[in-house]
Predict the structure.
Amino acid sequence: MKKLLSKAINAKEGSIIIVLVVLQLFSILFVKNYTSGTNFRLLLRAIPSLGMVSLGVCLLMIAGEFDLSVGSTFALGPMIGALFLGKGLNIWLSFILILVIGATIGALNGFLTVKTKIPSFIATLGAMMFWRGVVLVISGGRSGRFPLTEGFKMFFNSKVGPISTQFIWLIVFAIIFWMILNKQKFGSWILSTGGNIRAARAMGINTDKVKIIVFLIAGVMASFGGLFDSTRIEVVHPLQGEGLALTAIAAVVIGGTRLTGGTGTILGTFLGASIVFTIQDILMLMRVQAYLFNAFVGVVIILAVILNRKYNRSAQESSQDSSCSSR
């Protein structure tokens, strides 16, 4: 049993799986109504918004960069989309517009970061404040409707059995991102750029281009997450996505991605987003004050980082042992 536990901890996503299993067991045993069908459906509807944003943030962090403006992008795209919907724009054209807005903001963030050499933390902090101001100006500080057609609902706000279509979309994108990171040359470029940028440049990788593209992807995924959130409640509001950047970073870090870049997993990020919402759900069902949510997430982040460091240390020792034995 001890050997099995040690292997699980040393597996690539082992630590995050252990944390999730412990949370689930605790919830099943001690949290009233956690296993109810209503709560299960609520979780499957709530996780995709954060999950989509976290996937984009994961690729960006693996490349060694951050985007603190994803929460503002999350709000801006649907807000402008709702504005044009109110003026009679076709909802599918509005959908494309929302994604274009996210891509534009992401590309601007990337261009600003690589061309001015400003740390992305600072560049996107400014972008976060600027775009949130734009959201407030456009909305006048008021919420608005995000009207849906039946065809649009079928794709983004319906169910296949007990599972929401948004959760299916999240799984599809997670698979796509996993394939990009693990099976495509571009994924290797991302890992190389975040792991050792000088070595990546020496290998002929255009690291500036890689970073701009992953910033663009993060912007698109933030817009997608905002679209999911707005279609789920059929409302847009000016504070939508506030604090989301740090929550997404938390989900990615919990999932095993290094803050310094160069390593990370899509499965880990998917599980990290699930853990964040599971904690929130547990606290809500236990009627714990909402402001304690961040405290609990903070504890889980610290535990996850400790376990991830243990994994990295074990992986390094194993590679050293194998290299010594080969000699």
